[in-house]
Amino acid sequence: MKTYAGGSWTGRDIALQGGGAAIDMKGVLAAPAFVDMHTHLDKGHIWPRAANPDGSFMGALTTVRADHANWSAEDLRARMSFSLKCAYAHGTRAIRTHLDSIPPQPDISWPLFDELRAKWAGRIDLQAVCLIGCDQFSEEGDFAHTADLVTRYGGVLGMVTYPVPDLKDRLLGFFRMATARGLAADFHVDETMDATSETLRLIAQTVIETGFDAPVTVGHCCSLSTQNETRALDTLDLVAKAGMNVVSLPMCNLYLQDRGTGTPRRRGVTLVHEMRDRGIPVAFASDNTRDPFYAYGDLDMLEVTRQATRIAHLDHSRTDWLDSFAHVPARICGFAQATADDLVIFRAREMTELLSRPHGDRIVLRGGRQIDTTLPDYSELDHLWETT
């Protein structure tokens, strides 16, 4: 058996569970079913009615906020279901999604998420994280109600961090709320090329100071790539000491960061190699899909693998990077690990063949059975644009 990524992706043959005979796969590659641990199912596919006017981060933020008025349960159900169909057909078995949670949206989105989680049980395991800006945080009032919803629906407490004068106090309050409710934490962090944005450092220091012992995940961390190397690496030492997890979102960061009137110079990807060198768990994920934050994508983790390899130079380095698209995010989120019954099989004999094509002819096995990998047609969502 030819092995890639420390045993994650294999070629040549597959041994069946229960003592069955090995099946000769004629040299194809088989991957464990994917785990996509940072998505925004609630934003997905609003591009036809809410396109980013200039491709910038602020263009995305203001456009999404304006579109919130359309986010009824019916609208969310249609778009989120469409995204889940895509992810399932591509071979994803578990998803963590962020849910915009500015009132009154939480009382719409969280019950709807719970409905979809039950409907998709056995096909895609779902987990949700609330999402607000750190300047909207308080321990009382609206966010306390949101935190109660997160607890009721078994979610993760989340927040976007950026430099505000009292961020330390807000983080202390956030961790108090998470501790009281027994919740893990997941932050959007330093999604900017501004080297002075160091909220990642403050989060790590606060985790160490408080002894917060539930899982803490941070996503993006773009500003690390523009900081003085000594300072950036010292911050990563703190992240490692705090026992935090990182999820890198290279496709969305490449789309938004360093966008201006000319050619971009910087990729926006965080320091994933330096993180792994310090033992920090690193995962990669899809992030946004056909919305103002990222105009493209299809919740296809093979595409994420292909693009992350090129953007972050995962080739010609360590041999276990492919774990970051399945096993590592499963551990971070607390999803069960994939079994030999949940595989994605590609007609490729080695990695350059795998990463050179989209592989629309892949075979997806769930529970040992081949599933229908027909993707939904975009026309399924046309009724949403006709009524808004």
TrEMBL record:
Q: What class of enzyme is it?
A: hydrolase
**Where does the record place the Amidohydrolase domain?**
175-336
One of the Pfam families matching this protein, by short name: Amidohydro_3
A Gene Ontology molecular function term for this protein is: cytosine deaminase activity
Per UniProt, which keywords does this protein have? Hydrolase
| The keyword Hydrolase is annotated on this UniProt entry | yes
Q: Which domain of life is it from?
A: Bacteria
Q: Entry's InterPro entries?
A: Amidohydro_3, Metal-dep_hydrolase_composite, Metal_Hydrolase, Metallo-hydrolase_Enzymes
Q: What is its EC number?
A: 3.5.4.1
User: Is Hydrolase one of the keywords UniProt gives this record?
Assistant: yes
**Protein name per its UniProtKB record:** Cytosine deaminase
This protein's species is: Tateyamaria armeniaca
Taxonomic lineage of the native organism: Bacteria, Pseudomonadati, Pseudomonadota, Alphaproteobacteria, Rhodobacterales
